[in-house]
Amino acid sequence: MSSSSSALRDLQRDLENKANDLSKLQKDIAKNHQVRKKYTIQLGENELVLKELNLLNEGANVYKLIGPVLVKQDLAEANANVRKRIEYISAELKRLDSTLQDLEGKQNSKKEGILKLQQRIQSLQAGKAKA
C-alpha cells in the first residue's frame, strides 16, 4: 500500500515539474510572438521607405534623422542601408519562425507526456479505490 502511494507521489511530483516546464515553454512562445510582431512591423515600415526611395530622382535630397538632427544622406547610401535593414529583419523573422516551430514541437511533446502521466495517476488512483 505504501509503495503505491509513494509511486503516486512521485508521479504527481513529476507531473508538477512537467507542468512547470510547459508553462515556461508557453511563456517563451508568447515572447517569440511579441518579438516577431515587432520585427514584422519594422519590416513593413522599411519596405515602405524603400518604395518611397525608389520613387525619387537621382539628384533628390534625402535626409536621415539622427537624434534631433536631420543629416543629409546620399540616395544610393540610403537605399543600400534600407535594403540591408530589410535583409537583417527578414533573417531574424526566419530565425524566429524556426525557433517557434522548435518550441511548439517541444510544447506538444510536453503535453503528450503530461497526458500520459495523468492517465497513469488516474489508473493508480482507481486501483487504490478498488483496494
TrEMBL record:
Lineage: superkingdom: Eukaryota
Protein name, UniProt field: Prefoldin subunit 6
Pfam families per UniProt: Prefoldin_2
A Gene Ontology term for the protein's cellular component: prefoldin complex
Family as reported in the entry's similarity comment: Belongs to the prefoldin subunit beta family.
Listed GO MF terms: protein-folding chaperone binding; unfolded protein binding
Gene Ontology biological-process annotations: chaperone-mediated protein complex assembly; protein folding; response to cold
UniProt organism field: Rubroshorea leprosula
Keywords, ordered alphabetically: Chaperone
